[in-house]
């Protein structure tokens, strides 16, 4: 995990001393001192001094790294939780900051999904009305397109910091909604801003992480997103306190302003964007002319897959709480328990999926796991009792394995000059697919279809997705972004 270099080896009459410093690794300070006695009857002594700069998540990784350093002579295997290859201290810092921003985005994007059923009870809204409202909130993504364009014009860092401040404030306004229309209106603005933050974070990740760690880095962001969404889910039992208590969950959005302050202090602009901004415009046009631009076709290809995948994913996400509440008669506390219990094991799938995608490639992982995960999750709307919980857990793990492999394409396949805009347009396509699935699914349930029949029907679409990935997606693992996007060949940057 840490690559060492010998600094010096002074000696005295009784022993030899060796000092090893970090050549490459996540530590901001690292020194290993080894004393080898001349008398073989005396034991070799060793001391390692190290420190990390991992904001927000240091409490998770410090014990893991400490244990690895302590037992590294006994365990030669690479730690299961570490990236496939060593990250630098700067890459580690950036990843931690982006992970914190992902928590903010995930909380904002989960709020309406988790609370809509309880708000609908207060305001007397039908299942179809809830589906239409969720679709409207998703369609609000078009309002945030200018924010994505700004990311390609003024820089990623400034946009991420601004959105990290704006999104929580807008989301918290849901607590003041006098009616269902007002709630939908506030979240139609807040949720797209949260999604824009999520996309801007993805772009920085793609540009900052090394070629052998982009999918792993995305899996870490997904884990952090799970924490953010899990915080919203864990707060859901507040809704059991009374018919209007769901409003307090929206107030909790203001807690995330602390992350925005951290980003403002420490997040820097990506070297790739700085180099792109300095690059003469004529050289970009010349390179595009020589290499041939494939951006429109690539955007259509990736956007189509995102559209089809989210017909199922968005519908399953919204329908889960409604199904548990209306069909299984679960309370808000039981809904939260089910969601946390079945989604938490998916963290294992994210780590596995990220490492496999970086080591062995993305295409086959995504093509296999997307349909398998969809079928398993669909069965959780069919089975009852223990079976429902088991297939939900299994589906979450398998789907999580596919996620890093598929999501990383949204940034890898586009040049620096339009990476933010293209990634955001793909998100728009995903939201459109989700909106169609929600409206169609709600209408089918209201017309008499069972939740299980609807979800199994939508899961069949994932087979089409698998074929598209195998037929048209390139393999991007362990390739520099400049190799994937020759338009950036003239942009030189230094880390």
Could you walk me through the main structural features you see in this protein, from its secondary elements to its overall organization?
The chain is an alpha+beta fold and 495 residues long. The chain contains 21 helices and four strands. A four-stranded antiparallel beta sheet has the order 1-2-3-4, with no helix packed on it. β1 (3-8) and β2 (15-24) form a beta hairpin. α13 packs across α16. It is globular.
Summarize the structure.
The chain has two domains: 3-51, no CATH class; 89-277 and 293-478, MFS general substrate transporter like domains (Growth Hormone, Chain: A, Up-down Bundle), CATH 1.20.1250.20. It is built from 21 helices and four strands. The protein has helices at residues 58-71, 89-123, 127-139, 145-153, 156-172, 180-208, 214-234, 247-251, 257-266, 271-278, 281-291, 295-326, 332-343, 346-359, 363-379, 385-407, 409-412, 419-446, 451-459, 461-472, 481-484, and strands spanning 3-8, 15-24, 29-37, 45-51.
